[in-house]
Amino acid sequence: MAQESVSVPAQSPTPPASTAAMLAGYLQAVGVRHVFGYPGESVIDFMEAARHQGIELVSAVREGTAAFMAEASAMVTGRPGVCLSTLGPGSTAVLNGVASATLDRVPVLAVSGQIESSREQFFTHAATAPAATVSAGAVPAIVPPPLTAAAGSVDIYGDGDPLQVLRAARRPVILAGIAALRCAAGPELAALAERAGIPVVVSPMAKGTFPEDHPYFAGVLDMAGHRVVWDLLADADLILAAGFDPVELISPWSVSTPVVHLDTTPNTD
What mean pLDDT, rounded, does the chain reach? Predict the structure, then answer.
């Protein structure tokens, strides 16, 4: 007996996740809990996707404010700060905050809305080109970013063996900067200062790295009594710059004291 054939409709492949959902998922995976932004039609899908991921959208008065809020959040939490803007002029409004975060070496992600690529050449409001475009058609080809911390190392920049240079110094001073704060190097700096009897100066952005009631605390660079601090650096025969970044300077660097630069990135200034 001939068997009756049954036709089974082919199942369509599962559609890829939307751009908004993919981005919101990545932000949630790296620990982002807040997005600071200004609502707009072009970012509504992302706002909703973020809400489904448990990420709270904090509304700002303007996009520029949102960028600075994101930077402050990153400084406090250690997680990437995220600001959200509408397309075109909304994107340009975040530039000051993004530039500030860049110079402060603070991880901030600026997300801007955009129109369909087919309308870009005709839509004047989208005149601002983003740094990177993520579109729905490109979603399947996007390589997921790493969700674990990148392996880093602390390198030493200077002439000769740094340990020998430090041992030979008779009037060394430690200058701790923002990277020392990011690396939580306070206990190690205190131990070094106590063992070798070295005074410690901190930059304004590194306040809190070294206890200000510590007997070896020597002041804050370019703050109250800054002339005394600069005289201390000028009279030293070696400055150990621990995580000090030139962008932290308020006054121009005016001393000729030899410097050993200890950081995760080289000082090219």
Answer: 82
- Structure tokens, 12: 């369509």
Per the listing, tokens 């121009």 go with 252
Residues contacting residue 90 through CB under 8 Å, at least 6 positions apart: 38, 40, 63, 112, 113
Query: Helix or strand or coil: residue 83?
Result: strand
Q: Measured between alpha carbons, how far is 118 from 113 in angstroms, rounded to an integer?
A: 15
Q: What is the pLDDT of residue 262?
A: 87
Between 140 and 259, name the one with better pLDDT. Answer: 259
User: Is the pTM for the entire model greater than 0.85?
Assistant: no
According to DSSP, the β-strands at 172-176 and 108-112 are unpaired
What are residue 57's phi and psi, to 5 degrees? -95, 120
Residues 65-84: pLDDT tens digits? Answer: 999 999 999 988 888 999 99
Pick from 242, 198, 206: nearest CA to 222 = 206
Percent of the chain with pLDDT over 90: 48
C-alpha dihedral over 263, 247, 194, 208, to 10 degrees? Answer: -110
**230: which 2 tokens?**
């600069």
Residue 48 DSSP class: H
In this prediction, residue 60 has a pLDDT band, given cuts at 50, 70 and 90, of very high
Secondary structure of residue 51 in the 3-state scheme: helix
Nearest Cα to Cα of residue 132 among 18, 21, 23: 23
In terms of DSSP H, where are the helices of 86-235? 89-92, 95-103, 162-168, 178-182, 186-196, 226-235
Per DSSP, 206 falls in state G
- Which residue in this structure is represented by tokens 């707009």? 40
SS3 86: coil
